[in-house]
Amino acid sequence: FDSDGKIRRWKTPTTKYQHQGGTFDRFRSPSGMFYGWVHLSNKDGTGRDISVCEIDGPDRSLKVDERSTGSNEHHAITDNGRYFLSSDDAREHISIWDINLGQRVAQTPYPGDDCSIGWLITLPERNCAAAVLRDDDNDKQIDEVVVWDLPSGKVRRSWRYENVQSLVATHDGASLAVLFKNSEGDSREKFRLEFVHIDDGSVVHQLAVSAVPDTRGDRSPCFSLSHDGTCVAIQNETQDRLDIWDLKTEKFQTSF
Description:
256 residues, mainly beta, 4-stranded antiparallel beta sheet
């Protein structure tokens, strides 16, 4: 579906992009205008073939010289289809690639030696990327949410949260929605959903949530934002339902 509600169809490549190692990841831009696949180039794990397709546009490809098993890789592409991001299993950096130039233009180092990525996304309508960086040696599971400017890889803003479950960008790309564990007191609201502005770091909205599924090891968020930014739908694991919240009032509306 387009943003105006129209249904569009296109043929996806089948045999054209088949490689020795097969496809082990897929990605798309926030607008859905660009999508692609990650393929293993060589048997020894060196190299990636990135296939990028544009709706009603030409197909493009990119050679990525990362060595990895693919088990901990994350990939993302910007809304304009220009920049591609990839992480590596060595847990050392995130690479920023210029698809038009066909080369890596920057690398963003991880903050620690024993760090992993929980989420890696690009922001709609902006040349920015965000990720959840986890210190695997930290028993308290304190995660860092970082926003980078592209293609420079310069850190724009960062926040620290306990046990981040999901990370989603608003449709205008101005804020991030971070779902994290709430350890304050004995509150029944075990999680909080916080919206933070990427420019000034201010908290735009904050909701107390009672029960959500554990998605730390998953790449699919357990909540979704309405396109106009007025509501959020959150999966309620305990009640086996979908809860709808009004972001203007920060109050529960209804459930399904």
